[in-house]
Automatic annotation (TrEMBL):
GO terms for biological process: removal of superoxide radicals. This is Thioredoxin reductase. The lineage of its organism: Bacteria, Bacillati, Actinomycetota, Actinomycetes, Micrococcales. Residues 3-292 form the FAD/NAD(P)-binding domain. Gene3D superfamilies: FAD/NAD(P)-binding domain.
Amino acid sequence: MHQIIIIGSGPAGFTAAIYAARAGLKPLLFASSVAIGGELMNTTDVENFPGFPEGVQGPELMQKMQEQAERFGTQVAYEDVVDVDFSGEVKRVTTGDGAVHEARTVVYATGSAYRKLGLPDEDRLSGHGVSWCATCDGFFFREKTIAVVGGGDSAMEEATFLTRFADKVYVIHRREELKASKIMQQRAFDNEKIEFVWNAEVTAIHGEAQVSGITLRDTVDGTERELPVEGLFIAIGNDPRTHLVHGKLELTPEGTIAVEGRSSRTSAPGVFAAGDVIDPSYRQAITAAASGTVAALDAEHFLAALPAEEPAAAL
Ligand SMILES: Cc1cc2nc3c(=O)[nH]c(=O)nc-3n(C[C@H](O)[C@H](O)[C@H](O)COP(=O)(O)OP(=O)(O)OC[C@H]3O[C@@H](n4cnc5c(N)ncnc54)[C@H](O)[C@@H]3O)c2cc1C
């Protein structure tokens, strides 16, 4: 029986592991079998994580977080969690190899996935002009011409924010009207750096080392044309990775795991959630890391409050 199992190997999971390990809880962390290290593995320069004045590559930052967690005794298992049972005092976590792991507490830090366009060069050019996060990457597009795909509030927000840096921002939308709220739309319409391209979808992204342009297909007449841009921001939605906990943990209307106030406490006692999987708004590495801290401390307090007759030797 473990005292704490952590599911997820992004900034939230590894930070929870650092705290739990330093508290002597010997965490077992499931990192996934393929997507180890979380979303920052998909990017290049990270310039907004404190402590790295020259910036740091996303994969290097995650490697350092893992090393720091392991240094204090975290056991990292390269397995996918495929099922969870949070119904009893003993939490059960099943991994892809069929093993069932038991723990007094669980930190659920599985992150969230940005929706992709599904184009062949999208992943290859991620961090090289293709981005899902204006807050993270807008700064790299000073005086450039870029495009934002999407028609909702987040697309309008990203496009408007990006005009602080870029000279020109095309908003590509597959229909003739936006889903975004009227106020967000108006803000974008009023911005002279933003030009809307209606009834258009991106069918290809071009560029060797860096994005150099996109192909647009007219959704009405099917004609195609090239648009030279140096950046492509994809703002078509984000899905918290909650499929394993549907019906087991309470979710918010946005689809994130519901937590109590500023804590990480979920609707199941002893289960704590952290990072992008609870966060519909901020979704940054540093906020995820901070959230991992909260989860580890909450788990620690939960364990400390367990009745004294709990068989400590079995933990
Ligand atoms: C392209 C890109 C660039 C970004 N750039 C920046 C930036 O410059 N600065 C910044 O602050 N933020 C940036 N972000 C945002 C940042 O990456 C996220 O906010 C942060 O990684 C969220 O951390 P997390 O730990 O909550 O989740 P994630 O990083 O998503 O990690 C979750 C982990 O859990 C694993 N997992 C999920 N389900 C299971 C399961 N069932 N079993 C085992 N493991 C599982 C996943 O494989 C993943 O490794 C960027 C995001 C993207 C996509």
